[in-house]
Amino acid sequence: MGSVAASLDFQLASTSPRRSDLLTAAGLRFSLCEPGPEYQDGGDEHASVAGDPRAHAIARATRKGEGAVPVDRDAPILAVDTVVDLDGRELGKPRDVAEAEAMLTALAGRAHRVHTAHFLRHDASGYRGLRVATAEVVCGVPDAAALRRYLASGQWRGKAGSYGVQDDAQSFFQVRSGRYDTVVGLSVAAVQELLAELRGTQ
Q1: Per-residue pLDDT in tens (0 to 9) along the chain, 202 residues
Q2: pTM for the complete prediction?
């Protein structure tokens, strides 16, 4: 792996600006590459898929990573997937404001879990690594005006469970346990663990 082994620069197989921001803020050096397909057989990112939400996150992160096309074939590839788990049921990304409102109403006044799976691939060594970080989030009960403001902001678009804990248009989601960045969409600690594990194989 040469100089890459020393620095452990890697490629992030993601189009998410939030994940890039988290890695940049942590001082990790990376470039971007195109992720592999997230869903099998043309699956819909907006669907709330039946089955174990944590297992879905693992499967999707793995597909994104294994299917990614590297720009630098010597550099590791990191792929990530985040799911919202309400009582063992996945809440996907809302198609429209009505679906967003329905998800937020379902979450109101309740705790739920967020699972973020991290998959690291390094073809030169054959390494494949996986870490799953889980956090618990509590949703308050927003009044009608607060809910309308958040829906009108559009910040829920493209986000699992119809929310971003970091969104400035809402204040009713709070992380109760686990890492805040896990809920945003990437655990820096999990990425650092995977990079250290890869370094140990060199």
Answers
A1: 333 333 469 999 999 999 999 999 999 999 999 999 987 665 565 566 668 999 999 999 999 999 999 999 899 999 999 999 999 999 999 999 999 999 999 999 999 999 999 999 999 999 999 999 999 999 999 999 999 999 999 999 999 999 999 999 999 999 999 999 999 999 999 999 999 999 988 7
A2: 0.91
Q: Which residues are catalytic?
A: 81
- Can you tell me which residue has the tokens 């043309």? 42
For the chain, what is the domain count? Answer: 1
**Tell me, what CATH number does 129's domain have?**
3.90.950.10
Neighbours of 172 (CB within 10 A): 18
CA dist 165 → 70, 81, 152, 159 (Å): 31, 16, 16, 10
- Range of the structural domain that residue 14 is part of: 3-201
